[in-house]
Amino acid sequence: MSVVENIDRRQAERYQADFGVRFAVNGGPEHVSPALNFTSRSLAIRSELAVRAGDQVDVRFGGLPDLKGEVARIFPEGFAILLSEASLDMMARSEDQPQSAHTEKTPELTISSPFIRVASPIPARALISSNIDDELGFNRHFLSIVTADADAFEKVDKVWICANTTRWVAHGLRFERRGAKGLAVMGLNDWQAHMGAAYGLKLTLGGARTEEWTVAIDAEPIAAHLETLLPPRLAVNA
Q1: Pairing of strands 78-83, 111-112
Q2: How many C-beta atoms surround the C-beta of residue 231 within 10 A?
Q3: How far apart are alpha carbons 42 and 237 in whole angstroms?
Q4: What is the pLDDT of residue 63?
Q5: Do 109 and 180 have their domain in common?
Q6: Could you tell me which of 129, 90, 94 has the C-alpha nearest to residue 212?
Q7: Number of Cβ within a 10 Å radius of residue 17
Q8: Residue 119: inside a domain, yes or no?
């Protein structure tokens, strides 16, 4: 079964989740469990923890503010949370996402995708690299955009990423010139990477000194990259 083939159509489309999460219920201790499925606004977690509808849950991946939501559904394998509008709005507000990673060193990456064709007004390609050595719930993925214009990112200072109806400010953003090419690198956590594999990604690049422009990436090559990571280390066998 592929990363995004297992679709539950009982309500909204739900996509199979092959990653782990860290979560706390009602401000309690942190737990580590595999996720079961997700949509752009909900997440189901496999857990034997006793919860009730309406319980408040903080989900922690790293590279984002905590995703906050409440228990909306309980079933024998675990429970599902609906992400709060406030949490989703926080992800999309640049003032809540300090871009300190301009000086952050990128760790050694072990698996990279082939170059991915994108839709962009500036000739560009995308690349996804994944670090499979991190502990459960904190796997790291890096999305790189390479342009044929070395000055393409000169006045860009923010990138917003959209998957379906969910939007967030890019984390771990770094801009470089590589000879005659421009390079932007940003971090994705497991949930964001799987969102891209389900819905595709649309990047909006801009800032105070330049007009916005967009880069669109189809879901299929992102899903194909995540498939190469299974089953060795990133998969969680639920």
Answers
A1: unpaired
A2: 9
A3: 20
A4: 60
A5: yes
A6: 94
A7: 25
A8: yes
What is the pLDDT, as a whole number, of residue 62? 62
- In angstroms, rounded to a whole number, what is the distance separating the alpha carbons of residues 14 and 37? 6
Q: Which two tokens stand for residue 87?
A: 């949490």
pLDDT along the chain (238 residues), means of 10: 44 76 93 90 92 93 75 94 84 54 47 94 94 63 94 91 90 89 91 92 89 95 88 45
Give me the DSSP letters along 81-109.
EEEPHHHHHHHT-GGGS--GGGGPPPPP-
Exposed / middle / buried, residue 15 (Cβ in 10 Å: 0-12, 13-18, 19+): buried
> What does the angle CA 228 – CA 230 – CA 231 come to, to the nearest 5 degrees?
140
| pLDDT of amino acid 8 | 45
Q: Which two tokens stand for residue 53?
A: 């509808």
Query: How many separate domains does the chain show?
Result: 2
Q: What is the domain extent for residue 150?
A: 95-228
Helices (H), the chain: 85-91, 190-199, 219-228
